[in-house]
Amino acid sequence: MAKTYQYCVAENWGxxxxxxxxxxxxxxxxxxxxVWQVPAYNKHGNLWISKVxxxxxxKDEAQxxxxxxxxxxxxxxxxxxxxxxxxxxxxxxxxxxxTLEE
Amino acid sequence: MSTYKKEVGTGVQNNAGDYTGAVEGQLxxxxxxxxxxxxxxxxxxxxxxxxxxxxxxxxSGGAGTQTAALNFGGRSxxxxxxxxxxESYNGTSWTELADMNNGAxxxxxxxxxxxxxxxxxxxxxxxxxxxxTESWNGTSWTExxxxxxxxxxxxSAGVSNTSVLAISGLPPPDGSLLVEQWNGSTWTEIADVNxxxxxxxxxxxxxxxxxxxxxxxxxxxxxxTESWNGSSWTEVHDLNTARRESGSCGADNTSAIVYGGxxxxxxxxANTEQWNGTCWTEVADLATARNELxxxxxxxxxxxxxxxxxxxxxxxxxxxxxxxxxxGSPVTETITD
Lengths: 102, 337
Hints:
The complex is a heterodimer of chains A (102) and B (337). With 102 residues, chain A is α+β, with helices and mostly antiparallel strands. Chain A has a single domain (5-85), classed as Alpha-Beta Plaits. Chain A contains 4 helices and 4 strands. Chain A has a 4-stranded antiparallel beta sheet, covered by helices on one side. In chain A, a hairpin with a 3-residue loop joins strand 2 (29-31) and strand 3. Chain A is elongated, with a radius of gyration of 17 Å. Chain B has 2 domains: 2-41, no CATH class; 46-325, Kelch-type beta propeller (Neuraminidase, 6 Propeller). Chain B has 1 helix and 30 strands. In chain B, strands 1-2-3-30 form a 4-stranded mixed beta sheet, with no helix packed on it. Chain B starts with a helix and ends with a strand. The mean pLDDT of chain B is 90. The A-B interface holds A 12-24, 27-32, 47, 69-70, 73, 76-77, 80, 84, 88-96, 98 and B 42-44, 46-52, 78-79, 92-93, 106, 153, 170, 172, 198, 218-219, 265-267, 270, 284-285, 287-289, 311-316, 320-321, 325, 329, 331-334, 336.
């Protein structure tokens, strides 16, 4: 099955990392662990990965990076005192798993 | 190049960096990037990345515009790690300024980056009342008259540290109906909203504002939007996506933009919606889904800014800034092939 998205790891340096024209041309999705999703088989997606020196990852590799971030956050949440896990107002919930798209 | 000169009447201008004075269709050579660029105008709004905050931050307050924003208070990853740090944005980078007197999270905030107000601070330090208020003059924060109610996580509207509305907010479970107006020295209770809620968004002025989203039962997000005309609140068209803890800005009750937020306790969103005075329209998403972000509250539907917040992993605070340029904004395009 042809994939819809491709993934890379790139550090967001701020201004110019994604510019207005790039954002108009393709859809970006940022995930924990500096994982970025852009359209597959797309010239503008490829150019952007090149511009930001992104390290291309398979979906499974990207998923493993995201999972590691989520699991670390879940472990940190689990270690919190009960009072912070169940405050009077719902503000701090246990991190949920994230599933990347093909 | 000779063809370009013959057609256009001038040669290609050489410019070190972006040529902001270019007119539509004009070509120039960017000697810094070593590329040919030209000016176009966007056909649709889009988000781009802005300068990163110096410190990771969520649940902070925001004020100002896309090119002159302010970020204050909030917390970094972990708990509680509450801070009073203040940073100012110039359209490119953030600079640290004087801290707040008392660090806090989830406060209301609005104004400019030289005249802002932080009120209704949710503070894990019991010695600081939740209703305490601090005023920013561009250089330092000063404690001023506390709010009348114990509201926090409210919506806020207003243009300076002497003209602010604090709208609804806590206490739980359903949210307060109270609205208070600040004139620079005192808080005055004015007409209630119809739907009490907390973690809502708002924008506008003390006489012309909009309030939307939030939580109106212990766990249910709302899409309800209310419009303020200076004397009463009227329910208008709902958001397309009910959400809380979003970024928002806009001039008045006919023009607003809301971005990001949380649709359930574990789902952050990137959705952006724009209000035209009648209805909300879905426009381009943020690049990074996030909630509890701060916004330049005096931004517009043409030029908005959101910063900080937490991503899909609760506790994963962000330094990232995103800048919205609406349809019709000038755009620099680079010729790549």
